[in-house]
Amino acid sequence: MTTVGEDVKYVTVPGLQADAAWHWVAEAGNLVFTSGAVPHDESGDIGEDLSAGAQADRAFANLERALQAAGSSMDRIVKITGYLTDPDSLPEIRTVRDKWIPKRPPSTFVYVAGLVDPRMLIEFEAIAVKS
């Protein structure tokens, strides 16, 4: 964990890509802000030919790890944003989202031309309250 001033802390997340050039989570008071959770495994690999739903499931698992490292959880999310590269995948991704986040907090989906890795179809970032 890195402290930035009195109220902001950056959290290291076990099991997520350790060599990332950024922090996965920032804590500010009672709030938790995540970096974009993407569908990579612990080695940083995305794999080939994963469906949008499978990628969303993996990204939500990474998001859950990030929130837990900061003392929060998926059911404490107060805002979720999803970035999608394929508008046709929205129904499949919503189904996965509703499995991981059944309380349905405010949610925004944004269609983008691409993400940092062309194999990525989805990325999520969240704001949550600490438990």
From TrEMBL:
Q: Listed GO cellular component terms? A: cytosol
Which SUPFAM superfamilies does UniProt cross-reference here?
Answer: YjgF-like
What Pfam families has UniProt attached to this entry? Ribonuc_L-PSP
**Gene Ontology molecular function, alphabetical:** deaminase activity
| Protein family according to the UniProt entry | Belongs to the RutC family.
**Protein name in the entry:** Endoribonuclease L-PSP
